[in-house]
Amino acid sequence: MRRFLLVGLVILSLMLSAVGCQTTPAPQTGAPTKPAQGEPYRIGVTAALTGPFADTYAPVYEAINVYFQQLNEQGGINGHPVQILVEDDAADATKATSNATKLVQQEKVALLTAATLSATYGSIMNISRSAGTPVLIASVCPTQAYPPADPLVFCPASFGALYDGTAAIRFIKETAKEPVKLALVGIESPIVRTNFDHVTKIASESGIQVVTRQLMPPTATDFTPFATQVQQAGANWVFAWSPWSSQIGPFDALQKLGWKGDYLLWAHQPADEELSRRKVDALYAIAGNALFAEELPVHKQIRAAAQKYKTSYPVEYMAEGWVTAQVLEQTLRNAGWPGGAKAMQAALAKLSVDTQGLRGGPLVFTADNHFRTKAWYKFYRWNSQQNKIVTARDWVGIDVVPSK
Amino acid sequence: MLLEIERLTLHFGGLAALNGVNLSVGERELLALIGPNGAGKTCVLNCISGLYRPGAGQIRFNGQDVTGLRPDQVAQLGVGRSFQHVELFRQLNVLQNVLLGRHLHIRSSLILDGIWWGPARREELAHRRPVEQILELLQLDSLADRPVSELPYGVQKLVGIARALAMEPKLLLLDEPSAGMNRQDKEHLARVLLRIKELLHIPMLWVEHDMELVADLADRVQVLHYGQEIVQGRPHEVLRHAEVVRVYLGHSSAQN
Amino acid sequence: MQFWINVVVLASTYALLAAGYVLIYRASRVLNLAHGELMMLAAYLAFSIATVLPKQSLAVIPLTLLLAALIGVGIYYLFIRPMAGRPLFSAVLVTVAMGIVIQGLVVLVWTPRVQYLAVLLDIVNQSHQLAPGGAISTLDIASIVVALALFAALAAFFRYTRIGLLMRAAAENPLLLAQRGIDFHRLYAIAWGLAIGTAAVAGVLYTTTNRLEGTVALIGLKAFPVALVGGLGSLAGALPAALLVALAEVTAIQYVDPLLSNVAPFVVLLAALLLRPWGLFGTPEELERV
Amino acid sequence: MAMDRHKKIGQKAHASSQAWPGLRRQGILQWLALALLLAFPFIVNPFLLDLANLIALASIGALALNILIGWAGLISLGHAALLGAGAFTVGIMIEEFGAPIWITVPAAAGMGAAIGFVVGLPSVRLKGLYLAVSTLALHFIVVFLGGEYQTHHNLSTGIVIPDPALGPFVLSDRRAWFYVLVLAAAAATVFSVNLLRTRTGRAWLALRDRDIAASAIGVNLTAYKLAAFVVSAAMTSFAGALTAYYQHFVAVEAFSFFLTIQYVAMVLVGGPGSIAGAIVGAAFVIALPQGVNLAISSLSVPPQLKIYTFAVNYALFGLLMGGFLLFEPGGLVRLAVRLWGRLEALLPTATAVELRRPGRAQGPLQLKDDAMAAFTTASSTTDCLLDVAGLTVSYSGLALAVDHLSIRVPAGSIVALLGANGAGKTTTLRAISGFLPTETARITSGTIRFDGQLLDGLAPDRIARSGAVLVPERDKIFATLTVEQNLSIVPTSAPSGNRRAALREAIATYFPILQERQRQLAGYLSGGERQQLAMASALLRDPRLLLVDELSLGLAPALVQELMRLLEVLRRELALTILLVEQNAAAALNIADYAYILSTGRLVKQGPAKELLADAAVQELYLGVSASRRSYRQTAVEQRQ
Questions:
Q1: Which value does ipTM take for this structure?
Q2: Percent of chain D at pLDDT above 90?
Q3: Are the CB atoms for A349 and A88 separated by under 8 Å?
Q4: Of 3.40.50.10140, 3.90.1570.10, 3.40.50.300, 3.40.50.410, which CATH number belongs to B3-255?
Q5: Distance (Å, rounded) from C-alpha D185 to C-alpha D192?
Q6: Which of C97, D116, D306, D375 is least enclosed by beta carbons within 10 angstroms?
Q7: Through-space distance between the first and last CA atoms of chain B, rounded to whole angstroms
Q8: Residue A77 carries which DSSP code?
């Protein structure tokens, strides 16, 4: 018995140390560093590159990657290149944990970026806290970023739950021609639930009746039953706030059922593409980043970079990650060299980033507000007369105040 | 009578495998059950050990009605058996196979087994002794460490009997133990059967095809044909019975 | 009204997929747990073919079905036949492994992006008002019609054609069939081809109606309880079972808790396993053969 | 299993050979291993330490699953659900009551045991795949419940678990975790080993291999299946609880169906049933993706392609899993043993290999039988339709079922192959018709020629098509088809229309009952009618050689006589050659020209049927006529003295 146990342990430890011998000297290849010389800044990214929500999160990484490839070729930051170390978590919390552990403890990145499902945040923040590494969340903003903010958690992402809902209700109130019977559609997740609770409250304050709320399982592929519920509740407006599939899916299902009403959804990355594909005037999108339909100078820049470095996702998917990259660049610049975790945290806590028109105004973090001081929203829809996407309402800014 | 079977009937989807069979085995008796293929001999054994649920009839063992009990319950009452097609646990060695026969006698709990504590350990070692005795009795002791799958068929059959003996049964059911044995194996088997009878005093119900063995060893013979009993009695009488000869050899041979 | 339409439409998809499970199980006693993935793969193939031949659904769909059937035959000869004589569950796990590989490959080849087949096939999924409070789309009608037609065709196939008869015989006792001089492997391969072909039908219909993405494979797993509730060896059982499971699922979504939608088929399955494990149309003997 | 055997041999060696150089070397090795293990957390980087911890955690779960799949032979697809149940028990107890670790972990194990019991209940009725499927249902239900809890308690990022504290000692450092987890994994290993070598483990193996025999020696199948579920589930939930503490959070997304597959893969890849296999499998499955990541990052892949890393990992995992299933069902452990064996064979001192080879090196038996020589010359090279020469069939590569058997069947003859149950008759017939079960039995030497063509290695349907058609012993008809359909599915391979007509006519003439029963399901036919249908089906194939297996089985003597006569008639009218395998020697000898008698796989006697019928020894042995030789009882008594 003892002999077996020991043999087993020998095997186990040999195997582990074998793996160990392999890893320690492993050379890291990141962005090519031709023009920028010297030791790189190391930024860690854990992202849902694959899995059910990859089309929302993978482009964020792609944009960051393209942004810094270009920047490195132009000389890097403070004379140093930026190295992006990426790990895929497939929106799985266990993998995200192991990724974060690896990036923070082994790779010793100065800053961790997460573009993934909210269910993974808990463990990522835990690891960041234990190592004192700040974490930049480039997907739906967690409450920890809102004022009063967690010292280590920052969120530049365009969508931020409660403020999105407030803007949406204001827009519906202004746009609707008849009394609104509103349906809320989203996946069953705590963050959606929280947002919809909030929306229901402010809707009733502005005289809008919420007739039904459809919370669907995240894995749903057939949305007909949910659409049926919306239709039978007599809704004439829908506000959908979720990953893209579960926003557009119910819309398609409603169309299939012959529903005639107005539908407002969050403008995730595929919005440009799919608004033009459906060509339905009653489909509105609420956006945190300016859509590519506007062809701003910054859009042209992104397009050029994406083409040069051959992204696998269409260029229209890159805006969200571009803003994150802008934030990263500004942070590194302000933190100086060598820019450890402490310096990054300090830089982030008083940051102002010019988004070059991707947002309605500059993105500003303060010591206790790691979300933004003003949240900007713009509304789009398809216009069949002009046969293109048009602005339904220009930038609206909502002041972010500390919650009680 | 230790085992009494009355009007046992068994059907398989309309086909009658057993049709009102009566049978009994007394203390210290070696009863041979013979009959042509498909006569229902194995069905009788399977009904006794609870593998088949008879349609009608009663099986009493040791004065207790065991009809319709689960196999393990029947085993618990003291009925051991061997199988026609060996049915050994192929991945285990001879000793472990026979040790499995002690299953009902080992009384340790799963948890204690798992931590190899106190009674579990003591019992595990204690129960090797009777197993070794049985292996010795059957002259299998030299093979204790061999995986059963490596043994010749004839030896495997003996291991099957050893496993049944390890249960310390009050009655032993043997299903064609000599099938697949050569003369030498059969002589060994005969020795084993006599030892079981004379040294361990275990009565046996013995399904057999080899008439010579039956004639030599059985105390009593019962003939089954088409799920019905034809005759029973002392071996030499039964084997010369006209009906038995007819059943076994068919018309023409009988005329020969 | 809409409720019942939803049930029937969902049931038609389930029935199509369950037919594949049953065909494969009857032939080779294997549960093909990669059925959903194969359905998805077929839909992606349709997508690729449609990219080459845009707006020609009449060419794309038959080509896809043919390709899918060939894949089925290939799977049988490459992966399932070598598992003969091994524990049944090993063969099932081979299909699981196959499903995982397909999931990975699909991402590698087609990226995880959502795709829309309807646009490529130039199909407009119009809504038709059947009754007040009851609308159905063109593709949904197609789904129901195709499912019914396919079941009728399969029933006729097994009843009246020689190959169908042979396949029934092979399901019962392949060795005996070989003793009569017939290569049962070929029959099994045909069954796999047919099954993956039906999966392709389901896949193209479903992803054209909805969207094409990696998660649609899940519906394959959800259709599995249908096959079991109907009786794994019984095609006829798949239809009522599909209705039953779809009814449970739609009821759960509309009247109980939407989150139950993934669980509902399996709750029905558990109930069936406890009450009538051999399925609506199966026989108790079936249980012993597993 | 293999472990147990190994261990016992080890014990023996320990007792007998106190030769101490070997022992000492081993002792040093053990201490070295222990030292390495203790130092491990301090010599590797944090990431590897984390990996090691995850492997230790996973091996507990893999060992638990191994109990179910490897030993008890029960398939479970609810493993992730049980891990989840353990983790959620911890999470909920902390969330609701702030319970400490010494309460939560035992409670999680208890919860696992309870769920295991409930999940095990269907195993009373269900087997195999059906059982696996019912555990799949458990998976979806647990995931649903976990999700419900999370959403209704507004725990968006999962339940956060604080570092566990036992009194003043707080377990937060990953190094400390390493010792705790390795200790836990070691405890699980010891528990497994002990279970396997005692009554419980034996009973599980028994019910997996031969449930009928197991129940006949008193193993309560229901109780033991349930016990396997309960023990395995408790261990699994225990691992789940530790995982919750180690990961600091519980979220339902972590317990996907893929996690179950990963654990099943650990058991399969490692080697089902093997304790070392479960651990090695766990290490392999956990470390694999890291290895792939490493390979990808060292291959200087363009960063754009990194988004495919996971897909590559996923596909590779599936390929490996499928690869092991297809090519190495014994798993890594078996593979290692095989490779080791090959390595040993390469070494000059190959004595060990010599010994391991199954003991059958004596060379072919010298079969010099006069009677055989007679038949060989009588029907020699001329018209021998079937020629079996030196056929040896062994089961599992060891036990011989048929031993150097040679039989010849001249065209147009009826030859009988006689012998008792287990004599090897059916095996011979299976070898001829190509039906040896591929896994367990195979032809190790000898040839089978049919009409000059070698048959061994051909698929059964090819053999049937070449004209050697079998009428099997059992399952001889398709019970779910009608009589007509039974006949119609046989492809008529008769060369000419005339021949085909002759066959049909013969069937109509000699099996009139089939005409009457045309539309009936064959399953409702009586034994005699089934036999007739089977014979008719075989005839449709236009056989040149008809192989009939146990025609008399279960039939009334009168009917047997009648069918035997019919065979004789068919032989004459359709120019058939017949090989008749029979236990009922008398009936067979009456129609056969020549007969072979087998006993335990060997030919013991052969000769013209008439001679054998008159032979005293044959009468005595196979016809039940008792003789005057030394009785068994006498021999037994003599032997004892």
A1: 0.84
A2: 22
A3: no
A4: 3.40.50.300
A5: 10
A6: D375
A7: 40
A8: B
